Structure formats: structure tokens, C-alpha cells
């Protein structure tokens, strides 16, 4: 009687719940729970929605997180976006990239130009920079109301028979058949699976987004300058918006201090000091950026063998996106691979829950089989992307005459095709 009164007085409404008679805990029942309303979490929820499957996305923040400003999406990402039905609307807000303009590390001037697909091996390729805000808001708009539950921080994960119990900081307990971790680099779900924590690569990235009200006038190209321990570049998102980045090794910067993370003015000053030989138009990109549109973050990656041999799937639990394969940004595949994950995962879960089966078939066995299929499809792909991104970043930023020579030869001949080759992947459609 007392328990019933407490349930009536609580502010939450339990549409589907049950009481554990042993512990007297109240569980909310959800067939599929996704932890994290980032790119992977929302795209996975949309993939499932397109197949007619309901999911609940838990987000620890009070509102939608739109950090990172922009991201480059390659061919594989656009195929994934088409699979969930939002590719065309985002294409209208972004510019197709044609190639690279490469600055000399000695003079800072743009001295060479390289078409992305100079040999015609990747006809129909796509490479566009998209505002993260546009991408995230498009995903949310396509989801049913109530899909995302904000201010819902996961603290622990338990098991109850074959279900998983997700404990939230506010005391709520969710009981679910499928638990998907899309909760980023510091994933609670990945930790529960026993995956090792991502490690620092010793580099950091300063990123910014700048608006040119009268138009930027830049060609649809990646404008880049590599070498000397720093990698700087920028590219247009659309006619009036430009995204830029600068990756560097803090231990090699005498003036670097931890307070940079809270001081965008120092970030800005550092980047300008590194590109002072470049044309004024390249410096203006940084100079005109508002300090509210500049961020700094350390670069981390999951050790490739941790992905190859670790438990990325266990029973009815799995991880996707940065919770699975955090990687360096050097080939622009972090967000792209997260989109791939989401479509493959949605399809595998759909096959497990929607295919007609006889009454003797066990649902949990189907779920486990579906997630194992997902893990098999994503393990080697993730391993490859993490490894290539790390190697490319090492080559692009390393100092020394030999590395400088190799960089000049390698970049002019192989970089564009390497980017397109890694993006030449089709995650498939959402067809059961």
C-alpha cells in the first residue's frame, strides 16, 4: 500500500513498469535502450525507427549536445545517411569538395593543387563538410517525440535474468532486452564489456567555425599545411561558413599550459603564430573566428588490437561510434564510421526482432546472434580505420628531413586516393 502511494506521488509516469518482488525495486521496461544522444546514438535510433522499432535514447546532458562545430563526411557516410533517409536534405546545406590545395611548409604559400579523384577510380565519390548542428537537429527532427530522455546519466549496469538493468543517477532503473552503448570515448557500456580505455596519442586539436556574411570566396577544396609538428587546414562548409582545424603536440609547445582548455584566446593566438607565413586569407579564417566558436580537445584512440580481440559485443549488449572505435581525425572517418555502425546495427537488430519465426525460437538467442553478426561486420573495419588514421597523422605531423621528404612524396601521390579508398565502403540498406 505504501509503495503504491509513493508511485502515485512520484513525478515520473511509468507507462510500462514492473516491481521486483524480492528487492521491491520498480523497473521501467524498454525493449531497446541506447546510451548517448550523439551522432551514433541518434542515427542508430533513426535506423531502428525506419524499421518500425522503438528505442529509448538516454542523454546525460540537459539538452542536445552540438560540440565539434562541423565534420567532414565522405562517400561511406553519405550512403549511410541515404539509408536512413536524410542525405538529400543535408546535401543542400553543404559543398562538394573537389581536391586539396597544399601549402609549402617552408614558405606557407599554396604551391600545389591535387584533385581528389585525379585517376577517376572513385567515380561518384562524395566529400562534404557539414555543420554538426544541422546534422544533429535533422536526426532529432526525424525521430518520434519522446525518443530522447535528457538528464539521464547511467551510473551502473546490472543483469536480471537475461535482461540488462540500467541504473540512472536519479534512481530510475530501466530493464531492457537490448543495450547499445553510444556514449563516446569514456563509455560506461564499453567499460562494462571490459574494453580497455582509449589512450592518448600525445596530440591535441583546436577547431573552429567562422562565418563570412558576404561569402568566403574560397574554392571547394581542402586547404592544408603540414609539417613541423603541426597540421593546419580549412575548408568551406557552404558559401558563407568555413571550418578549420589545427592539430599539434602540446609537449613540443613551450608556451602550452593546461589552462588553454578554458582559454580560447590563447588557442587562437597559438594557431595564428603557427600560420603567420601563410597568405592573409588563410590567417583571416582564424582571426575572424569568434572565441565562442573555438574549442580544444586531446586526441585519443582505442588500441587497434583492443578492438580486434576485445568484447565489442556480449550477449545482448554492444557498443558503436566512439564507444567502439575512437580514432584520430587524420582521415576524417570518425563520424563517417559511426554512421556506418548505426545502419549495420539497426539492420542486424531488425533481423533479430522482426523476422517471422516459429514459436520455439528464443528471442534472446536471436538478439545475441544479430549482435554477433554486427560485431563480425564492424570489427575489422574499425581496426583498419583506427590503424590507418593513426599512421597518417604520425606521418603528417612528424618532424625531421626524412619525414618531410616522405610527406611531400607521399601526399602528392597517395593521400587523396587513400582518403577515397577508406571511404569506398557501403554499409548497405535497411532491408530485412
UniProtKB/TrEMBL annotation:
The yes or no answer to whether the keyword Oxidoreductase is present is yes
Q: Which residues form the FAD-binding domain?
A: 31-353
Q: Which molecular function GO terms apply here? A: FAD binding; monooxygenase activity
Lineage, top-rank taxon, reads: Eukaryota
Coiled-coil ranges per UniProt: none
Q: Which InterPro entries match?
A: FAD-bd, FAD/NAD-bd_sf, MOase
Q: Which Gene3D superfamilies match?
A: FAD/NAD(P)-binding domain
Any Pfam family from its record, for instance, is FAD_binding_3
Does rRNA-binding count among this protein's keywords?
no
Q: Can you name this protein? A: FAD-binding domain-containing protein
Q: Which organism is it from?
A: Lactuca virosa
| Classification of source organism | Eukaryota, Viridiplantae, Streptophyta, Embryophyta, Tracheophyta
Amino acid at each position: 500500500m505504501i509503495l503504491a502511494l509513493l508511485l502515485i506521488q512520484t513525478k515520473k509516469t511509468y507507462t510500462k513498469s514492473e516491481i521486483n518482488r524480492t528487492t521491491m525495486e520498480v523497473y521501467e521496461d524498454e525493449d531497446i535502450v541506447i546510451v548517448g544522444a550523439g551522432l551514433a546514438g541518434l542515427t542508430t535510433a533513426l535506423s531502428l525507427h525506419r524499421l518500425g522499432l522503438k528505442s529509448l535514447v538516454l542523454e546525460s546532458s540537459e539538452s542536445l549536445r552540438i560540440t565539434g562545430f562541423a565534420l567532414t563526411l565522405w562517400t561511406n557516410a553519405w550512403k549511410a545517411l541515404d539509408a536512413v533517409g536524410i542525405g538529400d536534405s543535408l546535401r543542400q546545406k553543404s559543398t562538394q569538395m573537389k581536391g586539396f590545395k597544399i601549402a609549402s611548409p617552408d614558405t606557407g604559400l599554396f604551391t600545389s593543387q591535387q584533385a581528389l579523384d585525379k585517376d577517376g577510380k572513385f567515380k561518384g565519390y562524395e566529400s562534404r563538410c557539414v555543420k554538426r548542428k544541422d546534422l544533429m537537429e535533422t536526426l532529432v527532427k526525424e525521430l518520434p517525440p519522446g525518443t530522447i530522455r535528457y538528464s539521464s546519466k547511467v551510473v551502473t549496469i546490472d543483469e536480471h535474468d537475461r535482461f540488462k538493468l540500467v541504473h540512472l543517477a536519479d534512481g530510475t532503473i530501466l530493464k531492457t532486452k537490448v543495450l547499445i552503448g553510444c556514449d563516446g570515448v569514456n563509455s560506461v557500456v564499453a567499460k562494462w564489456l571490459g574494453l580497455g580505455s582509449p589512450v592518448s596519442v600525445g596530440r591535441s586539436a583546436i577547431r573552429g567555425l567562422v562565418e563570412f556574411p558576404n561569402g568566403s570566396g574560397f574554392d571547394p577544396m581542402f586547404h592544408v599545411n603540414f609539417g613541423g609538428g603541426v597540421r593546419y587546414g580549412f575548408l568551406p562548409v557552404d558559401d558563407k561558413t568555413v571550418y578549420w582545424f589545427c592539430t599539434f603536440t602540446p609537449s613540443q609547445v613551450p608556451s602550452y599550459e593546461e589552462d588553454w582548455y578554458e582559454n580560447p584566446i590563447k588557442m587562437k593566438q597559438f594557431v595564428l603564430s603557427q600560420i603567420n607565413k601563410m597568405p592573409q586569407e588563410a590567417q583571416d579564417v582564424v582571426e575572424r573566428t569568434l572565441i565562442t566558436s573555438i574549442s580544444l580537445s586531446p586526441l585519443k584512440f582505442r588500441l587497434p588490437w583492443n578492438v580486434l580481440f576485445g568484447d565489442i559485443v556480449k550477449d545482448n549488449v554492444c557498443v558503436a561510434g566512439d564507444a567502439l572505435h575512437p580514432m584520430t581525425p587524420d582521415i576524417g572517418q570518425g563520424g563517417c564510421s559511426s554512421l556506418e555502425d548505426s545502419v549495420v546495427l539497426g539492420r542486424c537488430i531488425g533481423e533479430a526482432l522482426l523476422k517471422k519465426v516459429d514459436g520455439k525460437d528464443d528471442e534472446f538467442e536471436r538478439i545475441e546472434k544479430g549482435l554477433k553478426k554486427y560485431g563480425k561486420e564492424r570489427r575489422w573495419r574499425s581496426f583498419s580505420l583506427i590503424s590507418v588514421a593513426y599512421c597518417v597523422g604520425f606521418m603528417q605531423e612528424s618532424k625531421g628531413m626524412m619525414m618531410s621528404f616522405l610527406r611531400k612524396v607521399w601526399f602528392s601521390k597517395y593521400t587523396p586516393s587513400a582518403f577515397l579508398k577508406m571511404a569506398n565502403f557501403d554499409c548497405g540498406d535497411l532491408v530485412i
